[in-house]
Specification:
Layout lengths: L8 H8 L19 E6 L9 H10 L7 E6 L6 H14 L3 E4 L5 H11 L4 E4 L15 E4 L2 H12 L6 E6 L4 H17 L4 E6 L6 H13 L4 E5 L4 H9 L3 E6 L10 E7 L1 H13 L7 E4 L6 E3 L8 H15 L5 E2 L2 E2 L5 E3 L3 E2 L16 E2 L4
Parallel strand pairs: 1-2, 1-3, 3-4, 5-11, 6-7, 6-8, 7-17, 8-9, 9-10
Antiparallel strand pairs: 10-12, 13-16, 14-15
Helix pairs in contact: 2-9, 3-4, 5-6, 5-10, 7-8
Length: 370
C-alpha cells in the first residue's frame, strides 16, 4: 500500500551510503553456505497491475536463483493476520528474511515479530525504521518513484496536443504530491505550456471513483492520463477505451493499452531484494536501510509503448541519463498553484530531505489538496 514519506533523509544517507546496483554480484554470490529463504507478504493480489504486482515481479526475478527459496502470501490484511503469516513463514518454512510490503504491516506487527525472532531479518517497504527505536533485525527499504514520474512528465510534455495532462490520485499526502508535481515539472521542462489537472479519489483502491475521475479529466480536455493509486488498471483502461494516451504507475500496465501507452514509472525492487539476499548468502549483516532512485537502479520506466513518438522517446531517455548521473532535476524558486514561493533555492538535490515533506501542488497544477 502506498505511504506517506517521512523526513528520513539524514538517516537514509548515513545507512545506505555506497549501496548501488554495482555493489553486489548476483547471482554468483549464492555459492556461500547459507541458503536464503525469503517470505514476502502482500496486502492485495499479486496481479493487481500495481503496488503488489511490482513487488511480485521483482521477487520473481530471484526465484530461479540457486540457493534462494521464495514463500509468498497475498491478500493479507493490515491486522494481526500479517503477524501470523510472518510467524508461519519463519516456523514452518524456515524463512530467514521477511519482506513486509504494506505500510500498515510495520507497527506493531512487524516490530513485534522482529522482537520475538531476533535471529530473523525483517524489512519493510517504507522509510519507517529508526535506529535505537526499533529492533536491530528490522529495517526499511524504498525507491524514489518521483524520478520515474519526472520521466513520465517529460514524455507527456512532448506527447500532449491539448497541453492538458490528467492525474488521478488517491490522497494528498507527500509521496503522492511529489509524484504529481514531478509529472508537471518533467512536462514543463520540455513544454512550458503544459498543465496538469488532478482529481483525488479519497482512498487507495476505489475503482468506481477512479473511473469517474478519469472520465471527468478526459471531459475537461486532458489527452493523457496517469495516476497514483494502488492499482492503475481502471485509469489506464479508461484512457485506452476513450482513445487517449496514458502513463503508468507502480508496475507495467503496457498490456492494458496497446495503442495509447507511452511509458510508466516502476519500482525496481529486485535491486534491493538482491542486496538483501546477497548479504544473507554471504553471512554478512543486511543493511537496515536501503534507498535510491535512478542513480542506484531502484526505479525504472516501462519500455515505450505505441503512444510514445520519437521526440518523446529521445527526451525521456535523456532525462533518465541525467537521473542516473544524479543531476538535479528541480530548479527553483518554486511556487505552488496559489502563487506562494514554497521552495526558494535555485536548485535541489534529488534526495533533498525538504522534498520528503512536500505539502503543496506546484504552479501549473489545477486542483486543490483541501
Amino acid at each position: 500500500m502506498t505511504f506517506d514519506l517521512l523526513s528520513r533523509r539524514s538517516l537514509l544517507k548515513g545507512t545506505a551510503a555506497g549501496i548501488g546496483a554495482a555493489s553486489f554480484g548476483f547471482p554468483g554470490m549464492l555459492r556461500a553456505a547459507t541458503n536464503v529463504t525469503i517470505g514476502i507478504v502482500y496486502v492485495g493480489p499479486k496481479d493487481d497491475f500495481g503496488w503488489n504486482q511490482a513487488h511480485a515481479v521483482s521477487i520473481g526475478a530471484l526465484k530461479a536463483t540457486p540457493g534462494v527459496k521464495i514463500i509468498e502470501e497475498e491478500n493479507v490484511p493490515e491486522t494481526a493476520a500479517v503477524a501470523k503469516s510472518m510467524e508461519s513463514m519463519i516456523n514452518l518454512e524456515g524463512a530467514n528474511l521477511i519482506l513486509a510490503t504494506s505500510f500498515g504491516y510495520f507497527n506493531p506487527f512487524m516490530v513485534d515479530v522482529a522482537k520475538k525472532y531476533p535471529k530473523v531479518t525483517l524489512r519493510h517497504a517504507a522509510p519507517l525504521w529508526e535506529k535505537g527505536k526499533h529492533p536491530d533485525n528490522a529495517g526499511s527499504y524504498f525507491g524514489y518513484l518521483d524520478q520515474a514520474h519526472y520521466v513520465n512528465g517529460v514524455a507527456a510534455g512532448l506527447s500532449t496536443k491539448s497541453n492538458k495532462i490528467g492525474f488521478v490520485a488517491a490522497k494528498p499526502i507527500s509521496s503522492v504530491l511529489r509524484n504529481i508535481n514531478s509529472v508537471l515539472w518533467g512536462a514543463r521542462s520540455v513544454n512550458p505550456n503544459a498543465t496538469l489537472q488532478v482529481i483525488f479519489t479519497g482512498d487507495w483502491a476505489l475503482p468506481v471513483r477512479e473511473a469517474e475521475a478519469a472520465n471527468a479529466l478526459i471531459g475537461a480536455g486532458c489527452d493523457i492520463l496517469t495516476c497514483h493509486v494502488d492499482s492503475p488498471k481502471v485509469v489506464i483502461e479508461t484512457a485506452e477505451r476513450r482513445g487517449i494516451k496514458s502513463l503508468g504507475h507502480n508496475a507495467s500496465q503496457a498490456s492494458l493499452a496497446p495503442k495509447g501507452f507511452i511509458t510508466g514509472a516502476e519500482y525496481k525492487w529486485e535491486t534491493i531484494y538482491k542486496i538483501f539476499a546477497d548479504a544473507i548468502a554471504k553471512g554478512q549483516p543486511v543493511p537496515n536501510v536501503v534507498f535510491g532512485g535512478y542513480d542506484k537502479d531502484m526505479v525504472r520506466n516501462t519500455a515505450f509503448g505505441a503512444g510514445a513518438e520519437e521526440p518523446a522517446r529521445k527526451a525521456a531517455m535523456a532525462a533518465m541519463a541525467d537521473l542516473k548521473a544524479n543531476k538535479p532535476i528541480l530548479k527553483g524558486p518554486v511556487k505552488d498553484n496559489k502563487g506562494n514561493v514554497v521552495l526558494p533555492n535555485a536548485s535541489y538535490d534529488n534526495f533533498d530531505r525538504v522534498l520528503d515533506g512536500m505539502n503543496f501542488l506546484a504552479e501549473g497544477v489545477v486542483g486543490s489538496i483541501t
